[in-house]
């Protein structure tokens, strides 16, 4: 059945691709942005355009300040506040609606922390670090919806592979020049998901009322950074002999580097697998072939 979906952050990497796919599947999309001619919201003032929630079946909440920036105190405040305040505004509005829509929100794989020995499914405990704190606060802000039995989904999203943006797009220039290589020891586990699979998973979450709570948005086969580096070099036909030492990452990126590119984190997408979600690109080689 065709649905009407309100998306925040639809101008971003994931939102843009998701809005296109949902439209071509026959759904109606309303976009909620900080600027532009359409529906707007202002997180500081706590306002949302009139009519934003009219006829809405689901809200997909993707908006948030970029993670990949130097984590000054102000940047960290923006990263946290943009997610918590945005969620709070939506939750308050949804709770007032006579027929509340499903609430499907981005979250991060870093919910589980940045250093886990074991592979983690959705039942695993939360972890340590700034991003883990952000993800926990982000998800907790939507708890009043769950308390009222309104369907909520949190996409604990791993590294999204796309040539158009995100981590892979940033890695492409050095790798194409043949000066790419493993990061740190290269032994750290990396979870990843191709953008086409992530968009399918969001669509699955919108259309399947059986999906609720946290969902690991990660392909079923995490790899080590060494393997990722080798596969990316192979896909581009370039050598990958020049490693980026841990000390350089820490100098260049500080705390952000420690919790992202140096993170040792492998996710199992148990819920998606149990519900029969079909991956377009379950392994890294096919994902790189698809997105590059
Ligand atoms: N891409 C990844 O690898 C990845 C991995 C894990 C989790 N996620 C999460 O998934 C969500 C979507 O990711 P994405 O890669 O599509 O993000 P993105 O490209 O950076 O887009 C996010 C959108 O959020 C809005 N935004 C930016 N700064 C904001 C601020 N300070 N306050 C409020 N809104 C702001 C913007 O929309 P408007 O300008 O239209 O308001 C922007 O288009 C994010 O919350 C991200 O943390 C992404």
Distance between the termini: 33 Å
At CATH level 2, the architecture of the domain at 4-159 and 191-219 and 268-277 is 3-Layer(aba) Sandwich
Largest sheet: 8 strands, mixed
CATH-assigned homologous superfamily of the domain at 4-159 and 191-219 and 268-277 = NAD(P)-binding Rossmann-like Domain
Which structural class do you get from the secondary structure elements? alpha/beta
Strand percent estimate: 15-25%
Low-confidence stretches: none
CATH-assigned fold name of the domain at 4-159 and 191-219 and 268-277: Rossmann fold
Please, what is the average pLDDT? 97
Rg over CA atoms, rounded to whole Å, is 19 Å
Q: How would you sum up this structure, described in words?
A:
The protein is of the alpha/beta class and 292 residues long. It has 10 helices and 12 strands. The protein has a domain at 4-159 and 191-219 and 268-277: NAD(P)-binding Rossmann-like Domain (Rossmann fold), CATH 3.40.50.720. Strands 4-3-2-1-5-6-7-11 form an 8-stranded mixed sheet, sandwiched between helices. A two-stranded parallel sheet has the order 8-10. Helix 2 (73-95) packs parallel to helix 3. The chain is globular, with a radius of gyration of 19 Å. The model has no long low-confidence stretch (mean pLDDT 97). Bound molecules: NADP nicotinamide-adenine-dinucleotide phosphate. NADP nicotinamide-adenine-dinucleotide phosphate is lined by residues 9, 11-15, 33-34, 43, 62-67, 78, 82, 86, 106, 108, 157, 159-160, 165-167.
